[in-house]
Amino acid sequence: MNDIEKQFVGVWDLRDWTHTNLSTGAVSQVHGGDYAGNLLYTLSGWVSVSLIEKTRPNVSEDRAARYALHAKLKYEGYSDLSDAEMEHLMPYALSAFGFISYFGTFEADDTEVRHLAITAARPNHVGQILPRKHIFKDNMLTLYGDAGGFRDTLLWARVAP
Best exposed site among 42, 147, 153, 158 by fewest CB in 10 Å? Predict the structure, then answer.
C-alpha cells in the first residue's frame, strides 16, 4: 500500500452529497438532502460504501408474500400484478432507489481512487472499476465521480477511532 492509499484508511461519515448535471451545470442535493452514508477503507486494500435515503419506506416482514412476489416478477413479469401485489412491491422499489452499496478493493494515486466492486446492490456495478477524483483537506475527504451525465460530489468526515 502506497502513502496516498494510507491516507484513505479509516471510517468516513457522509456530510454532503450533491450532483451536478454536466450538460446544464445545475447542482442539487441528492435525495433533497435526506441521506446518510459511511465509507470504510482498510490497510489490506478493501473498500465498503453504503449510501441511503434516510426516509425510505419500511418493507413488509412477510417473507412468504415477498418470496411469492419475487418469483412472480422473475418468471412472469409485472404486467399481471394485482393492486395488492403492486402495493406490496412499491416500498421495495422505493427502498432500492434510495440505496447504494458496494464492497471491493481500492487503489489510489495523487488525484484518483479506483474502487473495484466485487459485490454491489446494483448488479451493473459488479466487476466494474468506479473511479473517483479525490481531495483531502484536514480530516475531510471529497470524492468526485462522473456517470450518466452527472457528477456526484461527496464530502466525507473522518470518524475518530
Answer: 147
